[in-house]
């Protein structure tokens, strides 16, 4: 399998690894097929700007590179901008992922959305973009689809 230099670089040298104490929102998603798990922590200020973001990913190299890139892409952005981040944008920023690895970038998009949903719930906010969000947060369950493209 051929990986771009950017994927390799973010895999070898991931940005924003870790946890945030008292996070504004936390999201955890998993993929049942590969068993990989991604957790995202957000620190959001009163102006709804993402001041800090950290991740922990128990997963393949593409999932680690996707989390690293996704956190870089939303850091310092508004929650509205973060909601617009798609897995395709993450993959493009990494100069592409092999087709069988696209689902790894889906994990990054979903983990961020799930963390934003957690933030919204904690603050009694309604976020229209998250109304129809379907997240496979029960990754120990057998029937979860893999979201492969
Ligand atoms: Fe599962 Fe990459 S193979 S996230």
In short:
This protein has 149 residues and is α+β, with helices and mostly antiparallel strands. Helices cover 37% and strands 15% of the residues. Bound molecules: FE2/S2 (inorganic) cluster.
Outline the structure in words.
It is a single chain. The protein is an alpha+beta fold and 149 residues long. The chain has a single domain, classed as Sufe protein. Chain: A, CATH 3.90.1010.10. It is 37% helix and 15% strand. It has helices at residues 5-12, 61-74, 79-83, 87-93, 102-122, and strands at residues 25-30, 37-44, 50-58. A three-stranded antiparallel sheet has the order 1-2-3. A hairpin with a 5-residue loop joins β2 (37-44) and β3. Residues 138-149 have low confidence and may be disordered. FE2/S2 (inorganic) cluster is lined by residues 31, 34, 36, 59-60, 62-63, 101, 104, 107.
